[in-house]
Amino acid sequence: MNNINYLAFAIPAFFIFLYMEYAIALHLKKGHLFKYESSVSNVSIGIAERLLNLFIAASFYDLFYFVYKNYALFNIPNVWWVWAILILATDFVWYWYHKLGHQVNFLWAAHIVHHQSEEFNLSVSARITTFQALIRNIFWCALPFAGFHPAMVITILTVHGAYSFFTHTQLIGKLGWLENILITPSLHGIHHASDDKYLDKNYGDVFVFWDKLFGTFQKEEEAPKYGLTHPIKSYSFLWQHFHYYFELAEACKRENGFKNKLNIIFGNPATLNQDIRPILEKRFLQHKSQDRYRFKFKKYLNFQLIVCIALLTFTTAFFGSLKLDDKIFIPLFLLITLINCGALLEQRRWIYYLECLRLILVFAYVFFKFDLLGLIFLPTISLIILERTFALSHVYRVYVLQYETIMSKHSPTEINIAHDSVINNKNKLYTDEKIESK
Ligand SMILES: [Zn+2]
Ligand SMILES: [Zn+2]
What we know:
By secondary structure, the protein is mostly helical.
């Protein structure tokens, strides 16, 4: 384990900044800028992207070199002023990648995840999916194609990527004359707003020039309302990633003819049938908890997230030294845990089976390391016996899936009804499960 990837240190640094922003907000009595569920889902999405990025980053570096060696239009030298042109060129490519990401359905399906949060704080910067990273890397190929050396491109992309982290906060406000040059937190906040006058504005990442040039610039006037025009109201890790792909598939299914289906895939998101999502929500989210109560047992969820962050940092630092079995186990374990975290917030009834799957996966990994994989039937059978003898799934649901009512929005009567509803729901789950097991 000699080759440490020092980018791993960016992960704890990211969480230190997150904590600092939260501490300052509390000090300024602005704790309402944060919501626990929202922060968990932002961080979960970021962890998955950073992890999967480890597996694809090298391929894209190779692709940049391939494009540069075979197709570069110009032979651009490595001199100081080229760096200035490169940062402008990078921002220009970003502008079009980002604008198309909002205007073409199949690109929006990946980018929508970045806009799902109704809070706007530093943790939102982590809402990048692997699909979006893939699309972005394809756009970045334009830079080596123009003739910029891939080593320069990769260096600039690191700086460019780090800048956008700091534009996701409400604590900084407007920055005077800098608002005319840079995309500031106020200007990027407008990009995350769903108010009519703010829609489809401020696509730039570092500079405002491109928005001003192409007519998409908008400064902050009234306080923005953050999030999507049609909020998804779900913290499910899977639903947040895939709901728009399902919506597109359903819209295509309803169309006759290949050309009409293509029009959906390449069409503008504003023209997609808005009735489709509620239908899919009924189909896929029927066991979703109501807004009026929320997950209480946060320590268990926090512990899982801390394990994920530690594992991600370790994997990033030592990725080059990991063996194939580690590279299979770690992503599987992390993804199951992130799905679990989203499912805990959403009271999903299948979560117990996910816990069992993860437990068996851990045993399989440990047994494999000690060359005892044949013994994997032992924990599997033990879980089945425990379920049959002690109704373990019921015990899990009663003790782990604890909910509290949200006091501020409802009268005491409503809270009692909500509480009864949770109890009834738990009893129903138990009854359903008994019926299923018969
Ligand atoms: Zn966007
Ligand atoms: Zn953003």
